[in-house]
Every structure is written in structure tokens, then in C-alpha cells.
Amino acid sequence: MNSTILQYDVVVIGGGPAGLAAAVKAKEYGLNVLLLDENDYLGGILPQCIHPGFGIHYFREELTGPEFSHRFMQRVKDLKIDYFVKARVLEIKNYSDLEKIVVFTSPEGAFEVWTKAIIYATGARERHAFEIGIVGDRVAGIYTAGEAQTLMDIYGVMPGKEVVIVGSGDVGLIMARRFALEGAKVKAVIELMPYPGGLARNVMILRDFSIPLYLSHKVVEVRGKKRVEKVKVMKVDENLREIPGTEFWIKCDTMIISAGLIPQVKLLTGIGVEIDPATGGPVVNDLLETTVPGIFVAGNSLLINDLVDYVAEQGELAAYGAKLFIENGGIPAEKWIKLEKGNNIRLAVPHYLSGKRDVYIYARVKKPMENVVLNFPEIDKKIRLPVVRPAEMLRIRLRKEEIAKAKDKITMEVIQQ
Amino acid sequence: MKTKVAIIGAGIVGASIARVLSRYENLEIHLIEKEADVGWGVSKANTALIHGGYDDDPDKYPMRAKLCIKGNRLWHQWVKELEIPHIWNGALIVALKDEDFDELERLLERGKRNGVPEMRIIDREELFHLEPNVNPNALGALYVPIVGQIGPIPAVIAIVENAVANGVKVHLETEVRGIKVENGEVKGVETNNGFIEADIVINAAGLYADEISKMAGIDYFEIHPRKGEYWIFDEGIPGPNHVLFPTPTPISKGVVVTTEISGHLMIGPNAQDLPKDYKDDTSTTRGGLEEVWQKAQEIWPNLPPRWKVIRTFAGLRPEPTGGDFIIKAEEEVQGFINVAGIRSPGLTSAPAIGYEVRDIIERDLGIKLKEKEKWNPYRKEITHFFMLQPNQINELVKKNPAYGRIVCRCNKVSEGDVLEAIERMKFIGVKTPSVDSVKFRTKATTGTCQGSFCKVVIINLLAREYGILPWKVTLKGKGSEIGIGDVKVLLRGEAQ
Ligand SMILES: Cc1cc2nc3c(=O)[nH]c(=O)nc-3n(C[C@H](O)[C@H](O)[C@H](O)COP(=O)(O)OP(=O)(O)OC[C@H]3O[C@@H](n4cnc5c(N)ncnc54)[C@H](O)[C@@H]3O)c2cc1C
């Protein structure tokens, strides 16, 4: 190998909010940190998110994406954290439980980094038109929401003027507003489920801009010669099956796909990290360590979050995990208590709890319910909630004393009051 | 004096003809293509197989039978000279019922007649040894080791680059709209970019070959489109080691299950005849894709879940009247050569078609061809970052840091690869920059995320290198621009 060899305590892969928070915290703990990102700039997707709504919990102020990431970048500078941009990790090697190798390439050359721990924070990718079964022509004017956002808000390009948005998650709704604000006609937002996919505050956007929302509908086909000319929409029943005879066409020149995010874990699956099919991200313990010792994950590569504040929090927890790992030569726990998913729980992270520390559980329900109790039967814990929705992640704190009451598992379930 | 040759259509066939003819001193060759880049017609969307040559009945389709096996043999040389991505992995035509063996025997016989080497029928045990995941009820197969796979557009690009290096002139975005014939002799072609003089006009216009032929006054055949649809799945899904066919029916070779050369499982195509005027309808359909799924499952039951699909696409076969390739100098119009109805196995046959046309020029047009003293048979493939060793990366990066910068994460394509692709585009005369032109040269945007991260970066590189504004960059030629203007264009009320 001709690559330059480097040595660090922790390598943080990914310079979005999770990675930035992790790098800053790890450095504050006195660890020797290297931060890597493949973009031209640090901040992950935040620099393209020019709308407000970031940092309400973390900074107790409402910031835009660029402002939020700027604050972290200032910390990276002040703390003199080593970082590379335009640096793509090609491979992670699990040399032993206590040593890892990160191979990356950059305009400065190819490098091999020996490190004790890795914090993996590479974010998510968006589902594209083919994955959601849209057929028809492969023409210009079809973008994922994030792609359109990058085009508009980083590079200043207007993709089109008559827009149909597929998916009513936060990203789709925010892009609906973004297009409307720049003078485009947003002709419809099409949502497969019977309820909107985004946070309530974002669903308001549709009313503010008089954008029609079609619930229980899907886009099935796109047609056009060189670019999108129209899309075909169909109604679906409660089992999400298409109802024949309900099809109609919407004329537009642009189709934005905002059909959900998938954690990017390719480098991890390559070394045998166990993946939770429910989150699409790795299985982790309460320090966000994966099933490969010394590899921690945070942010959207762990699970899809709806608030950047939780992402930053996960980054800091992973940094704490890395610190403990390095200090102790591994994360000690005599037994792990498994977090089980009960009624109406679609996903819950972390998967294993030690009972040695307080934990935030991040979870999502399968379907909306009102007047419910979140129940943890094994530890006699009940939390009343007026409403739960799939779009809104639950974040529940369990204290270590509570966790310690359980023998080998804790079930989390939603029950009607 | 040089004989001027106009080849209409820069698909695999036109390109192959251009390469073969570029060897001769006394020809001046013009390759004319209406699209913004080469290889965007039929040659773009197909199964990418170098067929074995056992399939075509020499009594009914003598041209196909002769040129397929000859083409297969020639490809072995061409892929090396031109560094075209390929694999020789062999095919298995799978028998699911006892009666299927009768058909396999027929194919074996026919293959022998056509001169196909090394074919044999294998039993169940050997089949499962070669393909453990084939339908457990399979009874055996016809094994054709000489079948291979290539990158069809990379092949057209490689051939055209080599042809240009040997003096061929490429005219892109140039649509032939008329053929000038005087006293029964061709004089040249009328195009949207003016008149191109020619003593020989070769019609290799794929789906549109009947229309071109009519322009010369020859209308004894028609081409109708026959659609085939495909699914491609994400990397990491185990596919077969060989090209798997079902036992063919009289109408079709059937839905193929294969691991295409970039390692993705691919299934397709079906065959659906379209009306004659649907020659540009390459849309995918629910019904067609469903049919492909069902049929593929018959030989390969372990299809992945539907959301593991990364792309679906459709191609149109140019089906001629009569079914056989039409390759001949038309007597009524001196100098006019039809190379029409090049349906499957046209990709396989293309190099042989090139030589066939050369022979026609010598034999039927009576032109004595003089070989060049220096003709360059070689062409170098562009740098693919994903194929480099770490020391090679560092050497390249030292020379040009762009090679260290990954643009497409899924397929590990570096900025250096993209810049090289752009240089190559300019070399053959691509005037309108498109993401597809970069995609077909580098593989960027063809991975798991289908370009949602890298397309924007590529657009900016294209804009910079071509000196245009980013929104003027196209996806696939004029009319498919990335945007309508800068982000404030609608607010200023300036968008058309
Ligand atoms: C679904 C499908 C599967 C197939 N699978 C295989 C396979 O596995 N193996 C195999 O060997 N073969 C296969 N084939 C067949 C093979 O793809 C074709 O035979 C081959 O690509 C034809 O090449 P071509 O150059 O004749 O046509 P094209 O690639 O279409 O080239 C013709 C060119 O002419 C241009 N043109 C047309 N009109 C004009 C004009 N007026 N002025 C200027 N330019 C013009 C077009 O734009 C086009 O680029 C398949 C085909 C299909 C559709």
C-alpha cells in the first residue's frame, strides 16, 4: 500500500450535524479526532436547508440549517479539529475489536487511518422514483426532494414551474413551500397514507399556500417526451391497494419524489454490522455502539430523525461511547436488556440497554392514535400522551434505576386509554 | 479522389461500419446522428448479450444466422482492442418440462449448422452445479459457453472514439431529412445542418431505417417497434453466474435472468408489438414489467423484494418485414446501402455487419479499397476509479487532484473520471452536454441512489467545462434541460 498512514483515537465519518456534534464532543473529552466528509463543505444537508426550524431544543433558538451548522463549524475551528472535505471513505476494516482501519480518498491522496473507534454518521439517502414503483418515461424534471433543494439552495437553479410532490413528509412539505415561494405552481402533494407524513407545523404550509393534498393517493406513472409533461394519480384503499377507475392525470413539468429516507449503511454491512430491518440502520446498545465493537453510529444513518436536535444529541452520545470504549478497552456490560417492540410500535432505538445509565428511547408508532398510554409493562412505567403519529418521533427518557428493574427485556407498547 | 461515405445512424451498427471502413485510405467517412451523443437509439436499451448464434434459423433468416456467430467471434477481438467492458460467462437455456428437451435438441442442431462451437445439453446435476439457485424443478439445460455480455453504449462509444481517431467525422444533432438522388445515383443527404455530399449512403438508422429508405425511394419493407421491458436490482443481490434463458417459444427467446456486467441482477425483456408510429415510446408499463417479473420467476424463483429495484427501462426492437436483417446495395439507387431491420441479435452481429458492408462496397459497388498504411486498432478505456489500486490512486492524484474526489458514491466515480469523460465527449463532437453522456462513460448515477447525490455535481462540472450556465445542462440532449433558469427566474417573470 502506498497510502499515507495516519493515526487517531476516533474517526468521525460524515460531517453533518451528527458527525459535527460527535467530533466536537469527542475533542472536548480530550480525544484525538479526525472528521471526514465527502462534500465540498461541512454541515451535511444543513447548508441546503435554508428554512427555519433548527436547534429549538439544542440551542433554544430557532435557526436556519446554515446557521445551525455554522455554529458547529465555529466549534470545529476553535477546537482545531482535524478534518477533510471531499474525502470519501472507501472501506472500513475491523482489524480487531480494539483497532480499526479507515481507508479514504481525497484530492490530497489516498489515506489509511488507524483508529481505536469510529463514529459513523453518514446520514441517509432518499428513495427514488423507481423504488416506489412509478413507471413511464425516464425524462428530465424528476428529482428527489433533496436533489431539488441542493439545486435551488446551493446552486441557484430553478428546476421547473409546475410541480407535483410525491410524499407529504417534512422534506416534501418544505419543498412545496420552497417552490411556491419562488413563484412555481405547486399543483398537488400526493400522499399514499390516509394521514400526512410530516410534522403538524409543516402540514400547515399546504393551507398557507393553498396547495391541494391528496391523501390515500399515489403517483403511478409519469409521461413526457423530453421532460415531464404529466403524472397519473390513483386512489388507494385502506390496504394501500389501488382502486381501479380512480385514475386522473395532473399536468406538470416537474415531479419531486419525497418518499422517505433510507439510512446509508453500506460500509457497515460490509464488515458484518447487524441491521435492524425496521429502522434500516444498525442494531445498537445504549451508547449507540453497533454489533461490531468500537463502531458507533448517530443521526440518520442510525434511524431517520425528524429533528436535528436529536441528531446532535445522538452524535454526542456516540462520542461519549467512544470515550468509554477507549478508556476501558471495550464497553463493559454483564448483561444487556433488550428493548422489545409491542403494540403499535414500528421501531425503537437503542435495541439493548445496560441499566447503567439513563437512556433516551427514540421510537415511531405504526399508526396514529389519540389518548394513549405508552406502557413499559416489565418496569411498571406508563406515560400518557394525547396523541401519537407516525410522523412524530417519540423520545422517551428511561432512568437507569427503572431499566435495572427489568430482567432481560423491556417492552414498549401503545395502548388505548 | 476519395469516395465520400455517409453513414446514417451512430448506433452499434453505424459505428461498427464506420470503424471497419475507417481502415481504408480512399474513403472519407461521415457518421451522422440525430441525437446529442452516440448509441442512444436501439443500442441503448437491450439485454446486452453477445449471443451464441444457435437461435437463428438459417433457412428463414440466413443473414441473422450467418452474422450472429461471425459477430460473436469478432467481438472477442474487438473488446480487447477497444477495451470494452465485457464478460464471457456462457448461457444456459433451461428446460422445465420434458418436452423442452425436444426444443433444446433442435437448437443444438441448428447451432451446429450455424457453426457454433462447444454447445451441449447438460443434465439436472450439472445444471445445479453451475447454477445452484435456478428453479429447483429444472430438468437440465442447453449449455452455450460462447455467450457473453458487454456494455452496449460503452461499446458504441469505444468504437466511435476509435473511428474518430482513424479519421471518421461525426455529425451529432444532425438529422437526415432527405436523400439526394440524381439519375439513379445518390449524391448526398439533406440534414437540419445542411447538405452532406456523399457517393455512398449507408442507412443504419435503426428504428427509422424504413423512413430513410423511403427518402431514397425504396419502400419494400417496414420497421415496427417491438417493446421489451427490464428490471435492474440493487447491487449485492445474488444473481446467476450464467445468462439464463427459458426454453424459447416460436415468438421469443424469452425473459432472461442475468447478472449484468456491472454486477446487478437484471431481468427482461418481454415482447410487445407496438403500432408503427410508436417508435419513440420507450416508456415502461405496469403490464409489461409485471409480465417480465412472472416469467423471470419461473426460472429464478428467488427474486428480491420489489423495493430493491434501482431502475426499470424499456427498449424497442426494430422488427423488419420478413424478419431477417436487410443488408444490401439497392440496385435502383446506385450507392445506397440498406442496413435495416437490425433487430436482435444486432448487437452481436454488428462487427460482422461492418465487414459485410465493406464486402458489399467492394463487390457490388465495385470500389477497390486501399488499406491505410497506419491504422490504429486500439482505443484506451477511460480511467475508472473503482478499478484502481491505492498506489495508482496516489499517482493519479499527484498529477490531478480531481482523481481523489469521489463524485458518485455508489459506483465510486471520481471527478477525474468525469473530466475525462467530458474530454472524450468533446473529442467525438458532443455539443450539448448531458448527464447521460457522462453516465454512459463513467457509470455515475447508475447505482443504488440513481444519482440523487451526484447528478448535481456532474451538472456543475459539465457547466464549467462547457462554459454554460448549469440549468442549460441537459439530462439527455436538447429539450431535457436541468432547469428553467436561475432560482429567481419565475419571480422576475422571465421563464418561457
Ligand atoms: C429489448 C431489446 C433487447 C435486445 N437484446 C439484444 C441482445 O441481447 N443481443 C443482441 O445482439 N442484440 C439485442 N438487441 C438488438 C440490438 O440492440 C439491435 O440490433 C442494435 O442495437 C441495433 O443497432 P442499430 O445501430 O441498428 O440501431 P440504433 O442503435 O437505433 O442506431 C440507429 C441510430 O440512427 C439514428 N437515426 C435514426 N434516424 C436518423 C436520421 N434521420 N438522421 C440521423 N440519425 C438517425 C438514431 O438516433 C440511432 O442512434 C435487442 C434489442 C432490444 C430492443
TrEMBL record, chain A:
Domain (FAD/NAD(P)-binding): residue spans on this chain: 8-300
Keyword Repeat attached: no
InterPro entries on file: FAD/NAD-bd_sf (IPR036188), FAD/NAD-binding_dom (IPR023753), Metab_Enz_Cyan_OpOx_G3PDH (IPR051691)
MF-aspect GO terms: oxidoreductase activity
UniProt key word Repeat: no
Gene3D superfamilies: FAD/NAD(P)-binding domain
Pfam families: Pyr_redox_2
Protein keywords: Oxidoreductase
Protein name (database record): NADH oxidase
Automatic annotation (TrEMBL), chain B:
Domain FAD dependent oxidoreductase: 4-358
Residue span(s) of domain BFD-like [2Fe-2S]-binding: 406-463
SUPFAM superfamilies (alphabetical): FAD-linked reductases, C-terminal domain (SSF54373), FAD/NAD(P)-binding domain (SSF51905)
Classification via InterPro entries: BFD-like_2Fe2S-bd_dom, BFD-like_2Fe2S-bd_dom_sf, FAD-dep_OxRdtase, FAD/NAD-bd_sf, G3P_Oxidase/Oxidoreductase
Pfam family of the protein (one): Fer2_BFD
CDD domains hit by this protein: GlpA-like_Fer2_BFD-like
Signal peptide location: none
Matches recorded under PANTHER family: GLYCEROL 3-PHOSPHATE OXIDASE, GLYCEROL-3-PHOSPHATE DEHYDROGENASE
Protein name, per record: Glycerol-3-phosphate dehydrogenase
